[in-house]
Design a protein that fits this description.
8-stranded mixed sheet, 2 domains, UDP N-Acetylglucosamine Acyltransferase, domain 1, 468 residues, alpha/beta
Length: 468
């Protein structure tokens, strides 16, 4: 039955024009899936990652830094739709800040202006290349048309990630969902970066244009601005690959981490989905595993090109088996399996791969509206070079499910976010609409309002005792 499932899936991908390398990657993972591979990385088989160089301790000369950035390209993963926040277009087109001039800026606006600022400061050409999905490409390129100086001659502005069929959990055959055929497909996880780069010839194009290094990050992480200091460190390291790691805080209850495989001393990645339930508590223990993975990566393009050419883009990354329903908004719809992989897992592919400890300013992702409220608030200031700089230690924001979608979130903050500079946390239960000039102080909290909905008046202060 599984042989039939694989053949049906391969035919579906080929008929849709999916790149051959992506079909081969899917085939490899399918065989692992039918063999019962869980993808688990057990705690007994690993040791914590320790002894990292710290970004804060780097001493890099101005010329050395400029020279390294001159050979660097920026690749942003931009395939996400923000469906978890009720969006149906590129998440990077969501407004994230307002400029000093009163201009609403999207993630994409900030990214482009970060690149422009780094170019102006160093003279680097610094190409910006986006990995889009079929759902994000048109809107993103239309938005980029407002920036006629962003493209670097001879290089693409974007390339397309691949897609694959969701598989019925009971038969491992491609799911059929006539109510919305687009839901029959899913992205292959950000490990698809490698076959997509290979299929579109992006790495060789960058090498031919005179670039040696690439910085890769998610478009919803505005902390991953171009940095000449890390570029210089990476160039001097001679490593083929490096990952940026952050020290854990109470907010970091999920996310990937790097660990050392005891069998061979090699650094490998362990995603949340690869963590056995029995190992979850210890994997999250900041005393044992001090770092989490920011998903900010650095590549030596020559080493990457050699590996992609050797494998045809089919890197031997670990399987991530992701159980879902075909319609993620309908738990009664058929159960499916999504075959995924993580781009950070390539750390095990490249001999001599390394990592660097970076500050929290390099990791500002927006996965939920709680993250968005924090980033829009006065906790951060937008600098002249379009970096978001925290003015105080960021509080932990926890909004109820009422605020889950962007539409519901914006309706409840019509005058903008409350001041959070004096808060250590903000926990909101139930349905509250915030007036203008609201200030949160200390460990601020709002309990479920009586009558189903409540209003925080203009100019009110929210503390641990509620509204005062």
């Amino acid at each position: 039955m599984s042989d039939q499932g694989l053949e049906l899936a391969r035919e579906k991908m080929q008929d849709a024009g999916v790149a051959p390398a992506a079909v081969d990657v899917f085939t490899r993972f399918y065989r692992l899936l039918e063999e019962g591979a869980s993808g688990y990385v057990r705690e007994d088989d690993v040791e914590p990652l320790t002894g990292l160089t710290r970004h804060a301790d780097l001493e890099v000369g101005a010329q050395e830094a400029a020279d390294a950035l001159a050979k660097t390209a920026v690749i942003k993963l931009n395939g996400g739709l923000g469906t978890s926040m009720g969006m149906d277009r590129a998440k990077s087109l969501l407004t994230v800040r307002r400029s000093a001039q009163g201009e609403d800026l999207t993630f994409l606006d900030v990214i482009v202006r970060q690149v422009r600022a780094a170019r102006a400061a160093t003279g680097a050409r610094l190409p910006l290349v986006l990995m889009n999905s079929f759902r994000t490409q048109d809107d993103t390129l239309a938005a980029l048309s407002a920036y006629d100086d962003v493209a670097v001659e001879g290089l693409p502005l974007d390339f397309l990630q691949n897609r694959e069929p969701k598989l019925r959990a009971d038969t491992l055959e491609p799911v059929d969902w006539p109510a919305d055929p687009t839901l029959e497909w899913c992205p292959p996880g950000h490990g698809d970066l490698y076959p997509a780069l290979h299929a579109h010839g992006v790495v060789h194009a960058l090498l031919d244009a005179g670039f040696r290094y690439a910085s890769v990050s998610n478009s919803d992480n505005l902390g991953a601005a171009p940095t000449a200091e890390i570029a210089a460190w990476f160039a001097a390291s001679g490593a083929p690959y490096a990952a940026e790691m952050c020290l854990k805080t109470p907010a970091d209850v999920k996310g990937g981490q790097l660990v050392v495989r005891t069998a061979d001393g090699r650094i490998i990645q362990r995603e949340t989905a690869q963590t056995h339930p029995d190992d979850m508590d210890v994997s999250l223990d900041p005393q044992r595993h001090r770092y989490f993975h920011t998903n900010n990566l650095w590549f030596d393009l020559e080493a990457l090109a050699a590996e992609l050419d050797r494998t045809g883009g089919v890197l031997e990354l670990p399987l991530i088996r992701n159980a879902k329903t075909v319609d993620p908004t309908d738990p009664s719809s058929p159960e499916v399996v999504q075959i995924e992989s993580a781009m950070g897992a390539a750390v095990a592919v490249f001999e001599g791969a390394t990592a660097i400890e970076v500050g929290r300013e390099r990791f500002l992702p927006v996965k939920t509206t709680s993250d968005l409220l924090l980033l829009r608030s006065d906790v951060y200031e937008l600098t002249d070079d379009y970096r978001l700089v925290a003015q105080v230690e960021a509080p932990l924001v926890q909004l109820s499910k009422t605020y889950k979608t962007i539409g519901a979130f914006d309706e409840r903050f019509p005058a903008g976010p409350p001041s959070l500079r004096g808060a250590t946390g903000l926990a909101v239960q139930g349905d509250w609409t915030f007036g203008g000039g609201v200030v949160a102080e200390g460990d601020a909290a709002l309990a479920e309002p009586e009558g189903g909905a409540g209003t925080v008046p203009d100019g009110a202060t929210v503390t641990g005792s509620g509204i005062v």
